[in-house]
């Protein structure tokens, strides 16, 4: 089983709809991250969390919110989706003593 | 502020040829440096990382990279390209803290 899972893997929605993307991990890591990937821009950090009570904004948090329901779960919400939020979204984790991050398979979101 | 520049959004090599993917960074503190690979429809997978110690680091699949502080570079190389190396490659920098920054990515094409 994958260590970092994301659901759904693909989602098509309409402008104005509320969308939630979910991430779960079995690695036992405290730190979790949400990124979006756009062609030619690499990955941009949306939000990150170092433990259940710690939530921090990243570079591009406007239009997004997150919830850390448990150590293993970190959800990303788009309260009112807009077309320029069409992108590939990745969840990642890292643990204390690890410098690298471990990525989920991604969610491809299309906002029409 | 720290940033990562990957020179060349697309690189094409012949099978068996040298692979060289360039990465330069700016950082106000000694950085940790990473290369990730992304295969189609997958998340990012760590190829190799530099934290401290030996400046030439070896990774998976025959890749290696050399940290050159004087040139602020961390170029990725592989002596002989294989068809399976076709993917997108991301350089990332983590300047001793918690915020990992990614380059825009380089798409590697391997011609038969």
Report on this model:
The complex is a heterodimer of chains A (112) and B (112). Chain A is mainly beta and 112 residues long. In chain A, 0% of the residues lie in helices and 57% in strands. Chain A has strands spanning 4-7, 10-13, 19-25, 31-38, 42-51, 54-57, 65-70, 73-78, 87-94, 102-103, 107-111. In chain A, the strands form two sheets. In chain A, strands 2, 4, 5, 6, 9, 10 and 11 form a seven-stranded mixed β-sheet that branches. The N and C termini of chain A lie far apart (33 Å). With 112 residues, chain B is mostly beta strands. In chain B, the strands form two sheets. In chain B, strands 2, 4, 5, 9, 10 and 11 form a six-stranded mixed β-sheet that branches. Chain B has a five-stranded antiparallel β-sheet with strand order 1-3-8-7-6, with no helix packed on it. In chain B, β6 (56-58) and β7 (64-68) form a beta hairpin. The relative contact order of chain B is 0.34. The mean pLDDT of chain B is 91.
Name some characteristics of this structure:
A: 112 residues; mainly beta; 0% helix; globular; B: 112 residues; five-stranded antiparallel sheet; 11 strands
List the total number of helices of chain B.
Answer: 0
- Percent helix of chain A: under 10%
How many strand units of chain A?
A: 11
Chain pair with largest interface:
A-B, 21 and 22 residues
Assembly state here?
Answer: heterodimer
Write the layout of secondary structure elements.
The complex is a heterodimer of chains A (112) and B (112).
Chain A: E1 4-7, E2 10-13, E3 19-25, E4 31-38, E5 42-51, E6 54-57, E7 65-70, E8 73-78, E9 87-94, E10 102-103, E11 107-111
Parallel strand pairs in A: 2-11
Antiparallel strand pairs in A: 1-3, 3-8, 4-5, 4-9, 5-6, 7-8, 9-10, 9-11
Chain B: E1 3-7, E2 10-14, E3 19-26, E4 32-38, E5 44-50, E6 56-58, E7 64-68, E8 73-78, E9 87-94, E10 101-102, E11 106-111
Parallel strand pairs in B: 2-11
Antiparallel strand pairs in B: 1-3, 3-8, 4-5, 4-9, 6-7, 7-8, 9-10, 9-11
């Amino acid at each position: 089983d994958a260590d970092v899972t994301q659901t759904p893997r693909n989602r098509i929605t309409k402008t104005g709809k509320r969308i939630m993307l979910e991430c779960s991990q079995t690695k036992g890591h405290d730190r979790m991250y949400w990124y979006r990937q756009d062609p030619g821009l690499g990955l941009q950090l949306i939000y990150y969390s170092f433990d259940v009570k710690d939530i921090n904004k990243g570079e591009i948090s406007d239009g997004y919110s997150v919830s850390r329901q448990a150590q293993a779960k970190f959800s990303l919400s788009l309260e009112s989706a807009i077309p320029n939020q069409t992108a590939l979204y990745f969840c990642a984790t890292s643990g204390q003593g690890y410098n690298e991050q471990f990525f989920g398979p991604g969610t491809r979101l299309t906002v029409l | 502020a720290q940033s990562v520049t990957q020179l060349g959004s697309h690189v094409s090599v012949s099978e068996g040829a040298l692979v060289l993917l360039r990465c330069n960074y700016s950082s106000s503190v000694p950085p940790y440096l990473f290369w990730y690979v992304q295969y189609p429809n997958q998340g990012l997978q760590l190829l190799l990382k530099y934290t401290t110690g030996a400046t030439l680091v070896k990774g998976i699949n025959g890749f290696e990279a050399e940290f050159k502080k004087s040139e602020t570079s961390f170029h990725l190389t592989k002596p002989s390209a294989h068809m399976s190396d076709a993917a997108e490659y991301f350089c990332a920098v983590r300047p001793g803290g918690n915020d990992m920054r990614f380059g825009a990515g380089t798409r590697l094409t391997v011609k038969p």
